[in-house]
Sequence to fold (280 residues):
Amino acid sequence: MEVDVTIFEMGPRDGLQNESNFINTLDKIKLVNLLSTSGIRKIETASFVSSKWVPQMADGEEVMAGIQRKSGVSFTALTPNETGLERAIKAKADEIAVFGSASEGFSKANINKTIMESLQTFRPIVEAAPMPVRGYISCITDCPYDGPTNPAEVIKVAEELLDMGCYEISLGDTLGSANPDSTEKLLSALLSEFEMKDLAVHFHDTQGKAIENIGISLDFGISTFDSSIAGLGGCPYAPGAKGNVSTETVVEFLESKGLRTGVKREKIKEAAEFARSLRR
Fold:
C-alpha cells in the first residue's frame, strides 16, 4: 500500500523502558508481533544498553530472536556504544539508532558525557554499522536542567549526526513542553539548513500539545512521526515527561488530514489494548 507519511513505532522500546515492573519477554514479543501486522513499517524493538542502567531492556536479544519477521517492516534497536552495535548486529537489527542531546545538562544526566564526547562516541558506531543509522536529538526546545534550548544548538548536533552518516534525525521533545510557537521557531531554523527528508519528529504529550505540534510539523512538510502505542512511556532522565503521543491518536489525526498511513485501524486498536494490559 502506498503511504504519504511514516509512523515510527516507539512502544516496545521507549514505551516500555520506564515501566517499573519487568515486562515478560513473551509479552514484549507479542506486542511487537501485533504491531508488525498493523501496517506499521518501522518498530523500535530493543535497546542494547547496559541492563544496569535500563533493566527493562535486558532481554533485547531474546525479543529480537523471538519476533516474527515480516517483509517490509524494519525492526530497529537503540545502540549507545560499540558494544551495543555488536549486540545489534548479532540480533539482526534492520536499523539502529544513536541518541544525542541538544543540551549539555541532559547529555550528562542521560549518558554521563558532554555533547561533544557523545558525538565522538557515536561516530565510530555510525561508520562501522552495516545497517542504516538514525540519530535522535533530545531536548529540542526545553531541558529539565538547562531551560530553553536554542535552535542553533539543535542545528549543531544535527549537522554532526548527518555528517557522520545518519540517514535521518528524529527531533525529540523529551519534556513534552514544546508548543506550536516553539515548534514553528525550531523547524523554521532547521529547514533553513536541512532538507525535509532529513528530519522526523518525536513529541511527548505531557501538556496535551503533541497533536498541535504534529500539525505544525506537517505544515512544514515533515512526513515521519514517532509515536508509542497506547501512549506508553517517557524518559527516565526527564522527570514528569511520561506520555509519548499515542500511535492510534497520531494515525487518526493524520488520516483526518487525508493522508495515507498504511495502518489498519482494527489491528492498531488490538495492539493498543494489549499494550495497556501490560501496565496493570
Remarks:
- The chain has a mean pLDDT of 94.
- The longest helix spans residues 115-128.
